[in-house]
Amino acid sequence: MTASIQAPRPELSDREETAARLLASSARKSYDPVVEVDWEAPIPQNKFGMTPEWSTLYGTPYWEELTDEQRVALTKHEAASVSSTGLWFEILLMQMLLRDVYSRDKHSRHVQFALTEVGDECRHSVMFARAGEHMNMPGYGPTGFIHQLGKVWGNFFRGGNAYASVMAAEEILDMMQRDFMRDERVQPVTRTVSKIHVLEEARHIRFAREEVARRLDGASRARMAFERFSTAFTVYFVMKSMIHKDVYANAGLDADRALREAAGNQHYKDTVRTSGTKLMQFLDSVGLVGGWTTRFYKAVHLL
């Protein structure tokens, strides 16, 4: 994929009609992870923490040298890191949604779906936390610098840039978890958690995509330049936070070698780029890909 994706601009839909459909979908099919996930189930020793092809070392010489046990251990830690980053961003998302609807008409379907999404994200946050606890994994998440940036983002980002950033972060997690949930080689808890998140996030992504398209419609050149920067900036740091550098040492590997080979892993770069095609096409369709900000996407292999 190149930086020139040439995606058509999406048609704008009615905000209230979209929210009403999404509320009806939520009423028909929502999940409670406390009861849907078997938290007491034993942990199979031969199951990967996530789809091995998503491992940052898959396809490298180091991966070929690892035993099956080492590969399983590594993917468990990588899955825990992905979940920790997801949990971090779910909390930021809830803050953003609540600030966005604070002064809006609470009788509107739009606000009611936003509040429904906050409820979903609250359950997802608990689910990610319990998954890490169940697997006896460390609490990873972003580094201190990025964690502090998250506080700034939560306090100041509003409107289109906030929805675009949230939508992009959710789609990045979604593109991984769609593979996890279908893969019988993966831990049962990881598969169930991924399935719940993917199915419920489909509504959230639809909500965010349409809101981005509405709020950017007719935006000035200056505003679009800011929107492109803020979205690319957020995507860059979310992608950089997905796999914490400590996963290798915690899995019992040579951390220096693992970091070196992961940085040059063409298989991982190609997997991210291919899986992120739909995300990048949408961002391009609303004018959020272009100019010097494409460097952020290239740096994390989405372009």
TrEMBL record:
Matches recorded under InterPro entries: AurF/CmlI, Ferritin-like_SF, RNR-like
SUPFAM superfamilies: Ferritin-like
Any GO MF annotation of the entry: oxidoreductase activity
The protein's name: Diiron oxygenase
Provenance organism: Rhodococcus rhodnii LMG 5362
